[in-house]
Amino acid sequence: MADTDTGAPPKPLLIAAACLAILLVAGVAVFGLTRGAESDAPAADGPLPLVPVPAPQSGSPECAKLIGALPHELTSSGTTLVRRTLADPAPEATIGWGTGDPVVLRCGLGKPPELTRTSQLRTINTVQWLQVEGEGTATWFVVDRPVYTALTVPDTAGTGPLQTVSDVIAANLPAVPLRF
Predict the structure, then answer these.
(1) How many CB atoms are closer than 10 A to CB 131?
(2) Would you give the distance in Å from CA 159 to the centre of its chain?
(3) Which of 5, 60, 97, 176 has the smallest set of CB atoms within 10 Å of its CB?
């Protein structure tokens, strides 16, 4: 059925074809976006890959005691973060909780270079912390215990992980004078 004057298909057929093309493009876009989000998200139960960092005291008795005392779960902004298995080779004295942007604790690190006599420290549940901002995260260093420990939390995390870890550190590691 062609338009007798121009030989073009009827207007309703053109509109239907255009609508089908738009629906097809939208369907492909939605499929691509949802498949991309699924493939980028880490598995909740798969091993958490972490880059090793220098931690000269990670094998210390203090780190072993602290790691053994840390909870299986943390609460962050009302969400329960479960401890993750670390991918091999797993850094010693390191734990991760949660998926997506996990909370990561590393024990036995060297003195953070940002720690100076003029550093702004924050005391949380009797533990002194030095906050170092990152892109989308903050790393909090415990600076008043026998071993330096870092807790890296995403910006979306509340104060729950810091409070819980502070309680565990205060109960298991004695306070020491600051070392500059």
Answers:
(1) 15
(2) 14
(3) 5
